[in-house]
Specification:
The chain is mostly helical. Helices cover 55% and strands 2% of the residues. A two-stranded antiparallel ribbon has the order 1-2.
Length: 178
């Protein structure tokens, strides 16, 4: 079999992604059920929740709705390919290539184009800043340097996945309308 069956019952091939089969409901649902850090955290924290926080931080920094939407979608490929921890992913060039190709299809579908270099840099900064907090709070692993300044209130309260899924979809809708 060369496809996965998604939550919305699409047959999707992540190696050869078709934009018309990418569904925001699949993304919101799967990411709300996927745990950050490959599950090696003190309490469940979903990739969906992380993406919501990235989008909130982008808005808090005064970035455009497009930038915030990019932040919301930046891990969307993981709903089709799973979350692979950074150290392992660095050793998997084929995986990274497939993930990047899929992410570009997702960005083109929902943003209309790939990210600019500046948008990609802003996204990386936000993602890294939130990772700093994930490591400090969810793994209780002291990070070097001062805590990055965040522009929203980060709350690691565990929520039911349906709440995260709903907030993801609502945020997507709001950011897509402008």
């Amino acid at each position: 079999m060369s496809y996965i069956t998604t939550y919305t019952r699409n047959h999707f091939n992540p190696i050869h992604p078709e934009a018309e089969k990418i569904d925001i409901q699949d993304i919101a649902h799967a990411l709300s059920l996927t745990c950050r850090g490959n599950g090696h955290v003190s309490s469940f924290w979903s990739v969906g929740e992380h993406c919501i926080c990235c989008a909130k931080e982008a808005l808090g920094r005064g970035y455009s709705n497009r930038q915030a939407l990019a932040c919301l979608l930046h891990d969307a490929s993981e709903c089709y390919m799973s979350d692979v921890p950074r150290p392992l992913k660095q050793e998997m060039p084929r995986y990274r290539d497939v993930e990047e190709q899929l992410l570009q299809v997702i960005y083109k579908k929902f943003l209309g184009s790939s990210l600019t270099d500046e948008e990609a840099q802003h996204l990386k900064e936000i993602d890294d800043d939130l990772l700093w907090y994930d490591l400090e709070v969810l793994l209780e692993e002291k990070q070097p340097g001062d805590a990055p300044k965040l522009h929203f209130e980060l709350d690691y309260t565990v929520r039911p996945f349906v709440e995260v899924e709903q907030e993801y979809l609502e945020m997507f809708q709001k950011l897509s309308e402008s």
